[in-house]
Amino acid sequence: MMTYKDLYAEVAALGFESEIEDQTALLYSANRALKSIAALAPSYGTLTLIQRVIPPVSHIPEVKYEPGEEVTIPLRGATFSLKFSGAGTVTLKERMRVTPYFFDSPYTELRRMLPNHEGELILSGRTSFTLKDIACYAYMNGTGESDIPIVAPFRDYDMRAHTDDFFGFTSLPTDERGDKIEGAYFRDDVLFVPSGYEGEIHLIYRRLPRAISADTPSLRIDLAPSVSHLLPLLTAAYLWLDDDSAKAQFYMQMYLDGVRNIRLSRPSVGDAQVTDTLHWA
Fold it and tell me: Among the residues of the chain, which ranges form H helices?
């Protein structure tokens, strides 16, 4: 088990010093090295979401506005949402207030609450524009306007909004029976699930290691024991990159030799990528 206290002592010894003056640089180098080495022995987290299907009480697929027309769209429900394309004004008229929204965009989404459960949209402008999927819902799906559904083939989940240690996807999500959710896919950090799916969403993801902190010097560093011996070497290489390039290059070579040894003994191990100004690889 390696702690920050152990790492500090080992990096200082590698530099033939009893202490390290710039601890800020040490922590930066250590956390940079930690993320790189974690790729050799990745760790995983789990996430469970529940998706509900909330059908709209009314749905207008499309309304095209032309200048000079007078178009009013009635709204009934607790909330509504729509998609807008073009340039023009959509005015929300309610019992106690009138709120204009001016849009100039090829695509904009509008989600709003209707406290009195009724209102109307008044369309105006000097150019044509289009509203799509104007949907009203009988009740709230959460506490904020961002929780109001948009009529779309997929529901999207930004993983960084649901976890604080997300690094990447490992496989497609499954339902409560362990079967893959048909039609689900992911792109970058976002999971897309068909809007018609209802039930549990189970996901295994690759997680980021917990950051190293000098405030908890005795806490175990979040790194597999099989690769923890590489952390002082890569930390030292980063730490002395500016002050002593020869020393930094020496420890970088020792680190890369250690990575090769691990890959030879464990062929399935992941790749740890290193990119630096000296072009070590």
Answer: 4-14, 23-37, 159-162, 231-239, 245-265
For the chain, the distance separating the N- and C-terminal CA atoms, rounded to the nearest angstrom, is 28
CB-CB contact of 73 with 120 (8 Å)? yes
* Contact between 206 and 168 (Cβ < 8 Å): yes
- C-alpha angle with apex 221: 220 to 226, nearest 5 degrees? 105
Please state the three-class secondary structure of 181-249 as a single string: CCCCEEECCEEEEECCCCEEEEEEEEECCCCCCCCCCCCECCCCCCCHHHHHHHHHHHHCCCCCHHHHH
- Contact between 272 and 32 (Cβ < 8 Å): no
Count how many residues are written for the chain. 281
**pTM of the complete model:** 0.77
The whole-number pLDDT of residue 197 equals: 97
Q: Are strands 71-76 and 118-124 parallel, antiparallel or unpaired?
A: antiparallel
For residue 242, what pLDDT band results from cuts at 50, 70 and 90?
Answer: confident
The amino acid present at 105, given as its one-letter code, is S
- Which tokens sit at 219? 């806490």
Q: Are 82 and 120 in contact (CB under 8 A)?
A: no
Q: Residue 267: pLDDT band by 50, 70, 90 thresholds?
A: low
- Of 196, 191, 187, 198, residue with least CA distance to 163: 191
